[in-house]
């Protein structure tokens, strides 16, 4: 596992999730397992098996987050050279050249991506087309429904 780029907010969100899993979810599931055990025969105890399965998911997620945090490279976009280039962490306002609609996206790490919040993975087709481009450039995004041409209106380092 190489370095995993992440914004400051993305790293904080993973740390909060890790604390919640360790301090709240792990003790809760241990208690549920103990309660289910007290009900007797474990072979036919659905509560016990469900709790053990959930425990496996929780422990797996804890290990996954710890691995990501140990390999993350936090990028503070506000400290980057603000030269109008699209780089990891920037928020980019685009105009679709076909219909002149504007949209903004922030380029973030995979764990932070959330299309509803207009945060796109640095590995997405749009980010791949944008990275390295500058304000005023036209870029073509290879999309499943066909190529989409955009003009980069603004690059913000926030």
Structural key phrases:
26% strand; alpha/beta; 5-stranded mixed beta sheet; two-stranded parallel sheet; 2 domains; Chitinase A, domain 3; 158 residues
What characterizes the major β-sheet? 5 strands, mixed
The CATH superfamily of the largest domain appears as: Transcription elongation factor, GreA/GreB, C-terminal domain
Shape: elongated
Rg of Cα set = 22 Å
Major sheet: arrangement of strands: 5-4-3-7-6
Report the total helices.
Answer: 3
CATH architecture of the largest domain: Roll
Order of helices and strands: EHHEEEEHEE
Determine the structural class based on helices, strands and strand pairing.
Answer: alpha/beta
Our measurement of the CA-to-CA distance between the termini, rounded to an integer number of angstroms, reads 28 Å
Summarize the amount of helix as a percent range: 25-40%
Strand content: 25-35%
> What count of structural domains?
2
Mean of all residue-level pLDDT scores: 93
CATH topology of the largest domain: Chitinase A, domain 3
């Amino acid at each position: 596992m190489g370095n995993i780029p992440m914004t400051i907010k993305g790293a904080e969100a993973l740390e909060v999730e890790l604390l919640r899993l360790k301090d709240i979810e792990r003790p809760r599931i241990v208690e549920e397992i103990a309660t289910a055990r007290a009900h007797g025969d474990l072979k036919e105890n659905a509560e016990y098996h469900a709790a053990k399965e959930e425990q496996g998911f929780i422990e797996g997620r804890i290990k996954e987050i710890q691995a990501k945090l140990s390999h993350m490279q936090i990028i503070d976009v506000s400290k980057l050279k603000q030269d109008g280039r699209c780089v990891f962490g920037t928020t980019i306002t685009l105009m679709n050249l076909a219909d002149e609609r504007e949209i903004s996206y922030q380029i973030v790490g995979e764990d932070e991506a959330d299309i509803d919040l207009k945060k796109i993975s640095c590995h997405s087709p749009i980010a791949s087309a944008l990275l390295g481009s500058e304000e005023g450039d036209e870029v073509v995004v290879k999309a499943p429904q066909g190529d989409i041409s955009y003009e980069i209106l603004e690059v913000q380092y926030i």
